[in-house]
Amino acid sequence: MFDFLTTEVLIFVAIGFFAQIVDGALGMAFGVLTTTSLLAVGVPPAVASAMTHVTECFTTAASGLSHLYQRNVDWRLVVRLAPAGMVGGVIGAYALSNIDGHVIEPFVSVYLIGVGLYILYKAFRPKFPRDVHDWIVPYVGGAGGLLDAMGGGGWGPIVTSSLLGRGHEPKKVIGSTNLTEFAVTTVISATFIIALGWTELSSALGLILGGVLAAPFGALIVKRLPVKSLMIAVSAIIIGTAAVRFV
Question: Do the Cβ atoms of 163 and 137 come closer than 8 Å?
Answer without folding.
Answer: yes
